[in-house]
Structures are given as structure tokens and as C-alpha cells.
Amino acid sequence: MPLDLSFCVKTVIMVKSLNIWGGVIMKKNLFSCGLILLLCLCLLVGCVPVEPADPTTPTDPVVPDMGWNSDVNIIPTPQSYACAETVKPITGFSEILCKVEKDETIEWGIEKLEEVAAGEGAEKLTLQQGEDVFFEEKNAHEQGYILKRDANGVTITAQSSVGMLYGLMTLRQLCAEAPATFEIHDRPQIRFRGNMNTLWAESGVWSYDFGDGIEKAKQRLKDAIDECAMVKINLMYADAFGFRTERFPGYDQLMTELSEYARVRGVRIMVGGYGMGYGMSAHKNSYMGQVFYNRESYPDGEVYKCIGTSDKAREHGTCLSNDALTDAKIEEIRTYLRATGVNMLYLHNVDDDVLTLKLWMNRCEDCRKRWKNNDLRAADGAAGAFAAFYDRIFDALLPEFPDLIICPVSPGYSYAHSTNNSNFGKSCAFWSGVYELMEHKENCIPMFREQFYQQQVFESSTPTIRFEDLHKTLPSYSVVYFSSGDGFYSDNIYTPSAAYAVFMKDADLVLCANGSSLQKPTAVANAEYLWNPTDSAFWNLELMGNFQKQYDHYNLFREGMIRPDEIYGEDGLLDASCERIFGEAHGKRIADIYRLQGKNGEVPIFTACNVELWTNYTKVNYPMLWDSPVGVAQQETYRERFSESAIVTAKAAEILAEVLAADDLTASQREYLQFMYDSAELYTELCEQLTRYMDLYIEADRYFANGTPYGNDLCDRAKTLQSEALAIIDELKNDGREAFDPLDGMLVRQEELFDFVAYCAGQIVKSIETNSRVPEDRRPPNIRDWW
Q1: Residue 268: what are its φ and ψ, rounded to 5°?
Q2: 3-class SS at 343?
Q3: Whose CA is closest to 305, among 294, 290, 292, 291?
Q4: pLDDT band per the 50, 70, 90 thresholds, residue 282
Q5: pLDDT at residue 18 greater than cutoff 60
């Protein structure tokens, strides 16, 4: 009797969804892999025998054979996907039959689907709830879906509105080149998958504030939330740092509207602030909240020291036995949540990446009476104290905000490189103890920095993966992933560093500290790898089994010095991402902007406040200041960086001008790309002025260092540069742009950097005229007495 191969193929799909086989089917060598698996399954479960059909008897439509296929471009890559080779585009449906309650989330998903499939169609689309064993897999009940096209039409099966939405978003991507039949079983590996809106890492600066008003920024943020939902990103880190309401006029209403808009699309809004420590309060105007102190009584009692390692920080709200202090913090958070609708908090404690016994031994006498044990992990020690602190917060807030999730950060969030194995082990033990002792575990996800392998004491040893070790004792953890383009390590405008999420695949939440307004392709790369860290259809990370080799690769990869063709090459992830964002007509050309690179890896500059220029927000004094001489090698480094940055930024402007000349851009695309173009033009000028300044610096410095003669026109060139920089400042003051963000949004440090050029050029003139390397008449350096 003949074999019913369609049944066998369906069995392959079902077995994949049940995780019966242990290996991963690669999306290459498809035919041979599929054939071997089919034969194996036939031996294991048998194939249905089919009697020869009577030619006079009607038969069901033939279902084409389906195999694993990487040609159909879906972002993020589904966990399990099989399809026929033949293509039958979907232009519309004869009927959309919704067998589940159609809430706002599903309605929005259908609306987005109909943007690409609103025509007439012969097939029916059915949305239904189903009881499949697949939904027992990790995150499948909450966010999973089964999407199927066969002779009966298209069916999406899910057990939640968000799962249904994700099925609709996958279908939306498939429509234009839909296979004649397909079946997808899909769910995220990581429950919460996030991008950051902020420019200064987790600390603040609104990247969607282009200086054209709060209403336009709101629309850009809504567009960004839509884009998140369409690629299954479900977390946006929207603001920081602190829980001050109405921090600018209209803030509360804006956040409330964004929170509700995001909720409908299955996206949570996260905001960051301090639980204790308040180190950021030393930065001018940067902390958006109340700075609490340990006081004997409130509001004006004597200040005292408690836990912590920094002597100054120990006064700043660190006492865990002071219930009045904790309650005051709770009221600030409660007020913020009520005013904004936010339901996820990044709660940073003392600024300690390494957990040490010193922190706990510094506790006050009242803390010693309540928690007598010096052990960090003990129930009557540090773990018990922190567990009580978080439970008190949750006891107060959960009755009013039942879906609130808090990610506590520090002490002991740990760095991959500088935190040794012993100290990482202490952090693991401490947070496992806190979690074990807490009553409200389901609302708390302790957060760590990115980690890879345990460090190797001996080269011959085989290290374990740090988060795998952590997960053995801490069931739920999260990661804030500083991974290039974060305003901390770099301001690279594109990075696929989320491919390293394979090291974090058991996390419940991974928040990438990038993906802001001008990093949209990075946001899509985050979506790809946070959903499916182990089996991307584009490119997958090689695990090297060695800490130093992996860490070296990570640093080169995240900054674009290692560029896999499957990501950066033609039709790779970057191209596919830009086509998703900007459309097929211009997507690949815009992707060329994100591929641009100078001879040392320099990238286009789109913000004045920029790690690539040594002008990032943590810099209160710039290292190339004329008044603070540096060595020859540093001078040459600065000069070359500025020069190469000017070249690639000018090339970015050329590409943007070419795209903007097209007449098929939407209004929102044109507005967005025009801002990119204007920024590229401005920062080309800035980088060119900085290059000219460094030429003057080097020439004048050589004269003062060893008497090398300088050009007769040096002072004239310096005065010309000074005049041109001041002219740009005048233009910026009159360009009609004004940020609503107290930290100046995307306009941050624009005027300040051109003022820096003008000042330094003027100082060189003073030095030459007074024959003094550092003029007496100079601005005092900025001083910050904390981190």
C-alpha cells in the first residue's frame, strides 16, 4: 500500500513542536535532513496506509509535501516552520472567522494584517483557541501560536490575545510570498524582550525628542511601539532615571497614553529609577526623582550611614530597617504608577557591580538588631533583609497594580570580564537567597549584566556558561544587555550583538541597551535573536567553549569589526530589517548607511553626545580640551577619529539625500529620514571642525613641546574656525527646534560641542599670543564628585 506522505510531514511538524527529537534541524541541506527524519519517524510511529483511490470517487485536495525552508523571510525566525515550495500569495480572505473574544489587541492585529491583505480572497481565515500540547512549552500559553495554511484555509490557534496577535503578525509578513501550504509552531524563548528609547544607556535622554514638539514625538513613539509589536518585541524602556511625575509639561499624560497604546499591542513600558544609592544625582539635572536619605525621623531628622561600600552612598536611602524610609519610597513609586500607567520598573540599588561582605557589614545598629547574621545569603542576614524590602514594596503596591513587575539591579549585577568567578558566585548565592525568601516571586525578576562563560583559571579547563550556573539556583532572572550602540560602550548605529543572547536564553527578560530612534535596524536584530536565540534563519553564534576567545569575539562583533555575510551581506539580516522598516523600494539603500565604516571602524555620527567622539553624557570634561594637554599618540588618535567620522557621516548624508529625492516616501518616512539627513549634515560639519581643531592643536602643541615652528597663518585659521563654530551656534538657536526633554533629547550637547570648538580655537590663539601653553585665562574644569 502507498504511504501517505502528507501525514508523515505533518508528523514531522508535530514531533518538532513536541520536542521529541533532540537535535535542531538546520535550514540548510533541507531535502536530505527532511528525508532522513521522515524515514526515522516512519519507523518509529508508522505511516498511515492508504487504499488505492477509486478514480470515480471524489478525493480531498492534495496537500503538497512540506519541508524546512529558509527562503521565506520571517523576522523573528519561528521555532518550527514547514512549508511547500510552491508560492501562492495571500491578497485577502473570503471571511475572517474569529472564534475567540475579539479584544482590542486582536482587532489591531487584524487591522495590521488587512494593510497587506485587504483584497478579495477565496480562503477563510479562522482565529481559534486550541488545546494543543505545544502550548505547554515555555511561554507558549502566554505568547505562542500555531499558524497553518492548508486546503481548508488559514488558521491561527492561540491561547491568548497576544499569541493571536503574534500569529497575525507572522501571517502579515508571509502574505506577499506565501507558500501554498505551511505550518508554524512558534513561541518566544525569552518571555520579555526589550529595546531602549534612551540615548544614555539606562540613564535617560529621550531619543524620540527631535525638537519638534511633544505631539510629533508621541507619534514617533507610537510608530515605534507598532514596529515593536510587528516583530514581537514586547518591552520598551521608555524613560529614566527616577520616578518624578510631570518632569516636563504634559509628561504624565504622554506616558499614560503611551502605556495604554502599548498595552493594546502587547508591549510593556519600563521606566528606571533608584531604590537606594542615588549615585546619578551627582550629574547635573539628570536624576528625575527624589533623593532619599537615611534619617532618624522624617522629614528633617539626623542623617546616618547604613549599608553600602561608597562612603557617600551610605547616607542615601540605603537603610533596610527604616520602614518610614521604605514607605516614603513606596509612595513616590505609587504616585508615579498612578500618573503614568507604567507597569514595569527597573529598580537600581547601590551602584555596586560586585557584591562584597563589606556592604553588609556596614549596616547600622537597627539593621543589626533585625538581621543579626553577617552571612550574605542567610534568612536573618543580607538576603533576608533585601527580601523583606521588596516584599514590603509589593505588599503595598500589588493590590492596586497587580501586573506590576520589578527588576531589581544591584548589589552584585556583575561584569562579564572584571567580575571573577568567586564574586559572580557570591552574587548568584545572594540573589538566589533573596528570591527563595520572597513571597512575591512572580513579580520580581532580579537583573544582571551580560555574562558569557565562567573565567578559566587554566587554559585546559572547560568553563561553564555563567547564566546556566545561575539558573540552577535562581529560577527567574533578567539581563540588561549593554551591547554597543548603548551610549555607554559605543554609539555604533547598527549592531546585531543580540546574537549573543544564546548565552542568556534561559532568562525571563533581556533588555538590550540600544535600539533607540535612529537604531531601528538594531531593534529588529534584537527582535530576531531575543525570540529565537539558538536557531536564526540568518546567522547563529558559534560557542567557542573558551571565555577569552568568546569575549574577544564579542567585543569585535558588537562593534562591527566582525561582519558575517548572513547579517551584513546582500539579503542578510540588515537588508531584511531595513526593508521591513523602510519598504522594499529603499530599504537596501538605507541599509548601506548602517554598513558604512571608516578605516578604523568609525561609523556615521547622528548625535553630538556620542561615545565615538568622546563626548558621551558621562564626560563632564572632554579629553581633547586644549587646556589639558595630552600626548602625541592621543592627539593623532583624536584627529583620525574625527576625520574618518566626518567622511562616513558625509557619505550617510549623500545616501539620505538620494533616498529623499524619491517621490514614493510616506509622510512619516520623509520626516524621519529628513531628520537623519539634517543630523548627518550637522555632524559632518562638527566632525570636520573637530578635525581642523586637532590640526591646530597638533601644530601649536609641537611648538610648545619642542619648538617646531608653526605656520604664519595658524592664528588666522584658529580665528576662522572659532567664527564658523559660533555661526553654527547662532543657526541652532534659530532653527526652531527645542527639546521638551529636560536632558535635551536628540539635541543634547549640539550647541555645547560647537562652543567647545570655538572656545578651544580661541584658547590656541591666546596661547600663541601669550607664549603660554595653557593660558591663565581659562574656564574652570567641571567637577563631579561621584561616578
Answers
A1: -95, 145
A2: coil
A3: 294
A4: low
A5: no
Q: Which residue has the higher pLDDT, 785 or 403?
A: 403
d(CA 428, CA 469): 8
Q: Whose grid coordinates read 501562492?
A: 88
> In this structure, are residues 757 and 689 in contact, taking their beta carbons and an 8 Å threshold?
yes
DSSP readout, 264-285? HTT-EEEEEEESS--GGGGSTT
Kindly list the structural domains of the chain, giving each domain's residue range(s) and its CATH number in brackets, ordered by start.
5-186 (3.30.379.10), 192-562 (3.20.20.80), 596-770 (no CATH)
Q: Please compute the mean of the pLDDT values over residues 645-651 and round it to a whole number.
A: 99
238-252 b/e with 16+ CB inside 10 Å = b? bbbbbbbbebbeebb
Q: 425 by DSSP, 3-state: which? A: helix
Which residue type sits at 177? Answer: E
126: how many CB neighbours lie within 10 A of its CB? 18
Backbone torsion region of residue 63, taken as left when φ is above 0, otherwise alpha when ψ lies between -120 and 50, otherwise beta: beta
CB 81 within 8 A of CB 110: no
Give CA–CA dist 504/451, Å, rounded. 8
Share of the chain residues as helix, strand and coil, in percent rounded to the nearest 5: 45, 10, 45
* Cα–Cα–Cα angle for 522, 524, 525, rounded to 5 degrees: 65
| Strands 153-158 vs 95-98: parallel, antiparallel or unpaired | unpaired
Q: For 745, phi and psi rounded to 5 degrees?
A: 50, -140
Which pTM value belongs to this model?
0.90
Q: Which three cell numbers stand for residue 438?
A: 520572597
- Three-state DSSP at 27 gives coil
Q: The dihedral of CA 229, 235, 240, 245: what is its sign?
A: positive
| In the chain, % of residues over pLDDT 70 | 89
Q: What is the pLDDT of residues 750-769, one digit of tens each?
A: 999 999 999 999 999 999 99
CA neighbours within 13 Å on the CB side: how many for 496? 29
SS3 626: coil
**Strand 405-409 to 344-348 pairing:** parallel
What is the model's pLDDT at position 35? Answer: 40
End-to-end CA distance of the chain: 77
Antiparallel, parallel or unpaired: β 478-481 and 447-449: parallel
486-522 tens-digit pLDDT: 999 999 999 999 999 999 999 999 999 999 999 999 9
The residue written with cell numbers 556596614 in the block is 362
Has residue 45 got a pLDDT over 50? no
The pLDDT tens digits of the residues spanning 653-698 come to 999 999 999 999 999 999 999 999 999 999 999 999 999 999 999 9
3-state SS assignment for residue 377: coil
**By the 8 A CB rule, do 738 and 746 touch?**
no
- Work out the number of other CB atoms within 10 angstroms of the CB of residue 577: 28
d(CA 143, CA 229): 12
- Please report the DSSP string for 485-545 in residue order: SSSSS---S---GGGGGGGGTT-SEEEES---TT-HHHHHHHHHHHH-SS--SS--PPP-S
Measure the CA–CA gap between 333 and 335, rounded to whole angstroms. 5
Q: Are strands 145-150 and 153-158 parallel, antiparallel or unpaired?
A: antiparallel
Q: What are phi and psi of 407, to 5 degrees?
A: -110, 100
